[in-house]
């Protein structure tokens, strides 16, 4: 099989099964397909592969579509967007699959297999013990039509297998290059549990043809399916799409990616406060190398520069620290107003922002903490002290080798200077000037350290000038006096 040339008739698809949440692996595949379509003026299709009725659930489909939407990967055809090649749920295409199963039976390229699970397991064990690959033995391949009909009449359960021709098969993978397979090692594989229950390889081939899919871009774990799909396409007289297999995603320990490596569903990342721009940028570099040192790309920029030839063949390593780096960058790019809108829901859910806290004051809080945010949800922990002072040990009020008495004197001096300012004057520069008077007497460390702790209850926080500016005169004085009373 030779690769098709890239033309203006580019049609690619992402075909998730709604049997679980929308995870990073599927999202990465969706992104690469989306970008390939955009780069070449093609069509990006979402097809829901829901033939596994026992495990498919509507909530998972909704999660997938919501995740794609949040990432900005808008599909051209699919659920809620009919492009003339639907329906876009495999469960609504069963009659089409039945017709194509009939075609294979008419060509004597499919047959019913009545082997039980126990018999199949015994065959597998025997072949492996004999040094052969664990493929189907072909036991039912030669059953006479009359015997097959009799077994079906008796209600014996069966599956439908494809007669795999024994030959050397080669195809050009758009990422991996030339791949050669001896189909004799594949054996006669199952294509349907029954006429009403087609399996993945069979249904995908029929749909890819009927939907005019030009390129199938998917994970490397699908390489073993590709020869089967090419053989089925040839059996129907279809031209196979170009296949391109993306590198596997591994954890930093080089094992299969899992939750312990930080991998979550896309909407879980959203809930934690990761930005879609950061996820897009991060996912892009899980297998793509532009050949430059540049790391920051917007989705629109990627639509222009993505090239499938720049996808790496080696496995991609999932690095949470890198995702945090991207997210920190994009958070810092937000205006104060944008960040306010993004952070406010987290503060509200934590009960920290209410009608008594002005928008201006909350915006000040968020602006102060902006550079320390790795994700939006961090605002609750980082800024919580603005709303309520956490309990703290009085010992941390003391600066290094100083003592409690000295800390008390310094805080009392700060109270005196703050008292001299009117409510209207109590703001950044005036606060800074007032504390400068205290620092001239006690030194910077013995002035700012105990004041920072008194205002925030923390050893690590923004500077006391910024904190006092947000808290206002009354609340600042209240907190300082409480600290003095502790000493």
How would you characterize the overall build of this protein?
The chain has 487 residues and is of the alpha/beta class. Among the domains are: 92-246, 3-Layer(aba) Sandwich (Rossmann fold), CATH 3.40.50.620; 334-386, Helicase, Ruva Protein, domain 3 (Orthogonal Bundle), CATH 1.10.8; 394-486, Arc Repressor Mutant, subunit A. Helices cover 46% and strands 10% of the residues. The protein has 18 helices and twelve strands. It has helices at 24-39, 58-71, 94-106, 117-129, 145-153, 200-210, 226-236, 266-272, 276-284, 299-305, 320-332, 336-349, 359-369, 378-387, 404-419, 428-442, 444-456, 464-486, and strands at 11-14, 43-46, 110-113, 159-162, 168-173, 177-182, 190-194, 197-198, 215-219, 242-246, 249-250, 316-317. The strands form five sheets. It has a four-stranded antiparallel sheet. Strands 1-2 form a two-stranded parallel ribbon. It has a two-stranded antiparallel ribbon with strand order 5-6. Strand 9, helix 7 (226-236) and strand 10 (242-246) form a beta-alpha-beta unit. Helix 17 (444-456) packs across helix 18. The longest helix has 23 residues, at 464-486. The protein is elongated. The N and C termini lie far apart (82 Å). Mean pLDDT is 95; it is low at 1-5.
The spatial strand order of the largest sheet comes to 3-4-7-8
What integer value in Å does the Rg equal? 32 Å
Largest sheet composition = 4 strands, antiparallel
Q: Which descriptor suits the 3D outline?
A: elongated
Mean pLDDT across residues: 95
| CATH C-level name of the domain at 92-246 | Alpha Beta
CATH architecture of the domain at 92-246: 3-Layer(aba) Sandwich
In the CATH scheme, what's the topology name of the domain at 92-246? Rossmann fold
Count of alpha/pi helices? 18
Strand and helix order: EHEHHEHHEEEEEHEHEEHHHEHHHHHHHH
**Terminal residue distance:** 82 Å
Number of strands: 12
Assign a percent range to the helix content.
40-55%
Beta-strand percent range: 5-15%
The stretches of 5 or more residues where confidence is low (pLDDT under 50) are 1-5
CATH homology superfamily of the domain at 92-246: HUPs
SS-based structural class?
A: alpha/beta
GO molecular function: ATP binding; glutamate-tRNA ligase activity; tRNA binding; zinc ion binding
Binding site for ATP: 259
Subunit structure: Monomer.
Subcellular location: Cytoplasm
